[in-house]
């Protein structure tokens, strides 16, 4: 069946084009596999909760009518404002909200950083812009401008709410604007498009504008709410939508509630990482597998103004494709912070592909946490992000990162194993750390089945054929520094030992790995083999090894030493620093290229000014044979479908021939490259 929905319709109609339904929810209640629901122009103030899912052969399709502006919003217009001195107030009967009142729901969850403020899920919007919640009526009357927000001048547009048994009162400072003219909305619904129950598979949602949902903080150890999402299902397609102003998450591909619900911060009995381990095993017992969960497609969406993440996912994001999305202004208001913030934040993104996205002006660009096994991040453009463009945290790989343009001040951070960076352009620094307290799983290749668990000494990474572009006016010296994990704040020497997870950093380049063993160094397992084969005490890896505690040298075989790294044929411009054991490094005091971020015309411009420096740095084609396998997982660096990598084409698909130019572009002549991001 093909159903139609129109603002001129009625839910008593049959849902034909001539006699359409009035609400999308009516169509969602009766839709069966193979049905299509076309929604016509208008603003639909409802939570769409599909009763049924489709099948792989017969998905249920929800689509905006071609060329028509169809909006699904979690907000309602409020015009009943009265003066209260120099501010305004409105009183709303609590029955207006039904069983969910965002102004009575506290922002809460695991890995949400504690502050002195109590924030709520409610928002007040003036002309579509979310205003700023205050702690009291007095703060509404005299709001202070916040310089941490990306829009400091708007932070004095303020509100505060009070709730009793009968009514919700909202006080607001509109800075001279008249709220009675119909330009003020408040969010009242938790979701825009979200099945109330899990297991609604194979649904396509395309062409809508969806905004202003009162979603809760979405950690990996709780129900991960999103303005839109499949809610623990399989095979959704979310495409060609404009998604904005979710309190926390735009699109959620995450877990459901039964496998864990904020037990770290409600029970206080175990640490968060142990609770996350429990979530994973519960999910496996609850049917988490490629057959049942994940395999979603998220493409061609514009996602912005979300408080936590543009796209989030734990477990439910596995085997998915995320491509051609424009994600920006995530955590724009800077009202709160936590360990789940970024343009894309995924846990257990097994065999997930993230490609051809533009991510900018967020806290982090792409944050891969736990079990990024078989994950590939490629052909993305990132800039203007506060922290790193890409972070890979406590994952055993293999994780493939190739052909990305990473232009933020911090390009890459890792406390993982077995990550390969190939043919990227990195204009920011790399920082590294280890993690000896958290054990995380690794899996049977291309599966959710767990093969083992271990912790992180670091290493087993590959850096081949990248360009490292140091800023010409870099304020950093060539000396190492230690930084904090979240803010990249520089630590003083006496602060490092007591810091939680300090990260080592150098200026742009790979010199941050100088103390790691290289490809030709003796590996710990090679020393172990000698010990067991010959019975002879192995030679010390350093002159003073074990001297302090007077233990024999073989005791070092069980030490927490980093694994070797493999670094070859990278190019370093403007004094960028190379790993001291790198083979084929090309270092230049000047540069072959420069870039400009043209925000007015919404494009990034890369000028290749000295192509001869790139041509003389050409190297071999990188493929799976060269990359090998991840140490702990013993899985090849290969595509999610199990076929080998061969990087014989560039950012635009142009063939590289026999000699690969480092970086994303196979360019041999002067050239201007323009990449739009509107």
UniProtKB/TrEMBL annotation:
Residues 533-543 have a biased composition (Basic and acidic residues). Residues 78-186 form the Glycoside hydrolase 120 insertion domain. This is Right handed beta helix domain-containing protein. It comes from the Bacteria. Keywords: Secreted, Signal. Residues 8-46 form the DUF1565 domain. Residues 235-390 form the Right handed beta helix domain. One of its GO terms (cellular component) is extracellular region. It comes from Amphibacillus xylanus (strain ATCC 51415 / DSM 6626 / JCM 7361 / LMG 17667 / NBRC 15112 / Ep01). InterPro entries: Beta_helix, DUF1565, Glyco_hydro_120_ins, Glyco_hydro_b, PbH1, Pectin_lyas_fold, Pectin_lyase_fold/virulence, Polysaccharide_Lyase_9. One of its GO terms (molecular function) is carbon-oxygen lyase activity, acting on polysaccharides. It is found in: Secreted. Residues 533-553 are annotated as: Disordered. Pfam families: Beta_helix, DUF1565, Glyco_hydro_120_ins.
């Amino acid at each position: 069946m093909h159903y139609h929905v129109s603002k001129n319709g009625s839910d008593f109609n049959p849902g034909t084009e001539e006699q359409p339904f009035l609400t999308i929810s009516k169509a969602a209640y009766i839709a069966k596999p193979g049905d299509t629901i076309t929604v016509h122009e208008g603003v639909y103030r409802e939570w769409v909760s599909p009763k049924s899912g489709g099948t792989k052969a017969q998905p249920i399709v929800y689509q905006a009518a071609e060329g028509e502006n169809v909006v699904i919003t979690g907000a309602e217009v409020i015009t009943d404002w009265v003066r209260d001195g120099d501010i305004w107030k409105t009183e709303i009967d609590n029955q207006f909200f039904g069983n969910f009142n965002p102004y009575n729901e506290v922002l809460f969850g695991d890995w949400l950083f504690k502050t002195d403020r109590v924030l709520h899920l409610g928002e007040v919007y003036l002309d579509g812009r979310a205003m700023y919640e205050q702690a009291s009526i007095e703060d509404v009357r005299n709001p202070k401008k916040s310089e941490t927000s990306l829009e400091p001048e708007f932070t004095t547009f303020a509100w505060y709410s009070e709730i009793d048994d009968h009514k919700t009162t909202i006080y607001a400072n509109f800075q001279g604007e008249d709220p009675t003219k119909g330009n003020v909305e408040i969010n009242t619904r938790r979701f825009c498009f979200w099945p109330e129950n899990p297991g609604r598979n194979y649904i396509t949602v395309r062409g809508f504008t969806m905004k202003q949902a009162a979603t809760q903080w979405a950690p990996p150890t709780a129900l991960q709410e999103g303005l839109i999402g499949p809610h623990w299902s399989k095979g959704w397609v979310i495409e060609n939508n404009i998604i904005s102003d979710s309190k926390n998450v735009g699109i959620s591909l995450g877990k459901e509630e039964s496998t864990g619900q904020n037990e770290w911060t409600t029970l206080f009995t175990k640490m968060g990482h142990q609770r996350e381990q429990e979530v994973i095993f519960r999910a496996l017992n609850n049917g988490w597998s490629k057959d049942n969960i994940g395999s979603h497609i998220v493409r061609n969406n514009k996602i912005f103004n979300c408080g936590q993440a543009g796209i989030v996912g734990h477990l439910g994001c596995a085997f998915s494709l995320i491509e051609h999305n424009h994600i920006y202004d995530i955590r724009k208001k800077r009202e709160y912070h936590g360990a789940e913030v970024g343009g894309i934040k995924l846990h257990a993104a097994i065999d997930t592909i993230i490609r051809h996205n533009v991510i900018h002006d967020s806290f982090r660009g792409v944050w891969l946490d736990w079990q990024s096994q078989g994950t590939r991040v490629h052909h993305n453009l990132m800039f203007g992000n506060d922290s790193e463009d890409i972070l890979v945290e406590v994952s055993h790989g293999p994780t493939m990162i190739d052909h990305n343009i990473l232009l933020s001040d911090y390009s890459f951070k890792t406390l993982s194993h077995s990550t390969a960076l190939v043919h990227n352009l990195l204009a920011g620094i790399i920082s590294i750390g280890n993690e000896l307290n958290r054990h995380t799983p690794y899996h049977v290749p291309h599966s959710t089945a767990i093969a083992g668990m271990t912790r992180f000494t670091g290493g087993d990474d590959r850096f081949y054929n990248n360009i490292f572009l140091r800023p010409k006016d870099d304020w950093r010296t060539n000396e190492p520094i230690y930084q904090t994990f979240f803010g990249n704040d520089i630590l003083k020497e006496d602060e490092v030992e007591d810091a939680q997870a300090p990260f080592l950093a150098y200026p742009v380049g790979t010199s941050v790995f100088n103390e790691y063993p290289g490809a030709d160094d003796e590996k710990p397992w090679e020393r172990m083999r000698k010990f067991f084969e010959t019975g002879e005490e192995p030679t010390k890896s350093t002159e003073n090894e074990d001297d302090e505690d007077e233990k024999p040298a073989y005791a070092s075989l069980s030490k927490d030493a980093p694994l070797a790294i493999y670094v070859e044929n990278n190019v370093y411009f403007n004094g960028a620093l190379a790993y001291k054991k790198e083979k084929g490094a090309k270092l230049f005091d000047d540069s072959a290229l420069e870039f400009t971020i043209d925000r007015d015309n919404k494009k990034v411009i890369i000028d290749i000014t000295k192509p001869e420096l790139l041509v003389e740095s050409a190297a071999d084609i990188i493929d799976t044979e060269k990359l090998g396998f991840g140490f702990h997982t013993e899985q090849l660096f290969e595509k999610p479908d199990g076929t080998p990598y061969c990087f014989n084409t560039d950012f635009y698909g142009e063939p590289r021939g026999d000699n690969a130019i480092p970086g994303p572009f196979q360019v041999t002549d002067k050239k201007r490259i323009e990449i739009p991001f509107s």
